[in-house]
Design a protein that fits this description.
Layout: E1 2-7, E2 12-19, E3 22-29, H1 34-48, E4 58-62, H2 68-85, E5 88-92, H3 94-99, E6 104-112, E7 115-122, E8 125-132, H4 149-163, H5 179-185
Parallel strand pairs: 1-4, 4-5
Antiparallel strand pairs: 1-2, 2-3, 6-7, 7-8
Amino acid sequence: MNILAIDTTSEQFVAVAIKGGESFSRTLKAIGGHSKMIIPAIDETLKALGLEVCDLDAVAAVVGPGSFTGIRIGVAAMNAFAFANNLKRISVTSFELVAYSRERVRAAVDAGHNNLYVADCVDGEVRSTCFVENAKDFEGLEFSTVLDRAETLKEVVLKKAAKGEFSNSLVPYYMRKSQAERERDGD
């Protein structure tokens, strides 16, 4: 199966192309935002394996939580590729990346402004989530990061594809309203 997977939820942009047993990944610092780099980076990633979008069977995106704008860019791009080329879609959460290959973990994702998105995960599956407004509550805890985000994304996507975990549409996973929405609504 040929798959293109991206992660635009953090300060890094990650693209992974999978062609059968081969893969190629590209990780870039999102200087100036994901929108400027997404198409050239995807093109470079696909070409490294001799692929074009029309050769793909599926696309995958990390749908959140994370950067609101980054989520929108990644989800919109992968939905557009899928729609235009009749491709399957694979949805991945940021929590699944943190929890991958860990039996039991409390996964935390930076929500900015000293806040965290948190999920309790068992065997890579999210069991419950919460938003923590004051991350100081977690002082003294040891945080473990995803060491190789591209490799982990590839493994999670391949696992979901093998299980047939496809969706009709990639839907952003926001755990709270954006800052602009909160200010507008007086929250």
